[in-house]
Amino acid sequence: MAANYWASSQRNHWMVDRWTLAKSKEEDLKYVSEVDYVKLRIWFCHLIQKLGKRLQLRQQVVATAFTYFKRFYAKNSLRATDPSLVLVTCVYLATKIEECPIHIKIVTTEAKYCFQAEFGGFPYDSPKVAEFEFYLLEELEFYLVVWHPYRSLTQICNELGMRDLAVQYAWFIINDSYRTDVCLLYSPHLIALAAIYLTVVLNHAEFTPGPAGEQRDMKQWFADLNVDMNSIIEISQEILAIYEVWSDWKEEKIAALYKEFKSKPPIT
């Protein structure tokens, strides 16, 4: 494992560009609108979160599973694969990499229970997940260590003297950011700064009194940062855009949307 993000496989092998992401969606967008495609991707992230909660996983483990899922679909289409198998395998692999391994039979059993409403259960057994794990590893190019924005967020918020509720709000924004593709496009510290930026802009930032808390001119604080503010704005816009789609997201309708999407005849 690299000692820092800048020397990591994530930085050197798993930062992609928008053209690559656009190409990865081309096949699926023949069968579904851009907005409905985003809704489907939100849904699959919701299912990862649901399974993670069922397995009582830490948020960082769930975030790693999110990242594996995003990386896999930067190379593959939803139409050509079974996302339920992909996401369960991503969760299983994440538990091992984040050093909280759960037996594969427990993962598959909980998935069968968890996904009754969405898929009538999970249609695969443990050997199938184990088999697909090898394919997933190949698609991830065996680069499995993921750097997340949570550490940067905690460090920066402590330096700013942000109160716990404000830190929690920014933390939730980072959780939501995994519904977007920003984890493939930007470094973790920029995503953390974007979460703080949104917390300030949305008037949820509170600071403790004293020297640390006196740094309250956040406009000047951001202006003084030696970072690309355009990137922070872009990340913020991506997250706000997903909130707009999410506001019209009805979970009970997504399963039907997915079934229709998968059942459409191939376009030649």
Helix-strand blueprint:
Blueprint: H1 9-13, H2 18-25, H3 34-54, H4 59-72, H5 83-97, H6 104-114, H7 116-119, H8 126-139, H9 150-160, H10 164-177, H11 182-185, H12 188-201, H13 218-224, H14 229-247, H15 251-263
Helix pairs in contact: 3-4, 3-5, 3-15, 4-5, 5-8, 9-10, 9-12, 10-12, 12-14
Q: In short, what is this structure?
A:
This protein has 268 residues and is an all-alpha fold. The chain is built from 15 helices and no strands.
User: What is the number of beta strands?
Assistant: 0
Shape: globular
What class do helices, strands and sheet pairing give? Answer: mainly alpha
- How many strands, which pairing sense, and closed or not: the largest β-sheet? none
Number of helices: 15
**SSE pattern:** HHHHHHHHHHHHHHH
Low-confidence stretches: none
Radius of gyration: 19 Å
Straight-line N-to-C gap: 45 Å
Estimated helix fraction: 55-70%
Share of β-strand residues = under 5%
Oligomeric state of shown chains: single chain
Mean pLDDT, all residues = 91
Protein model, in words:
- The protein is globular, with a radius of gyration of 19 Å.
- It is 65% helix and 0% strand.
- Helix 4 (59-72) packs across helix 5, helix 5 packs across helix 8 and helix 9 packs across helix 12.
- The model has no long low-confidence stretch (mean pLDDT 91).
- With 268 residues, the chain is mainly α.
Question: What labels describe this entry?
Answer:
mainly alpha, 0% strand
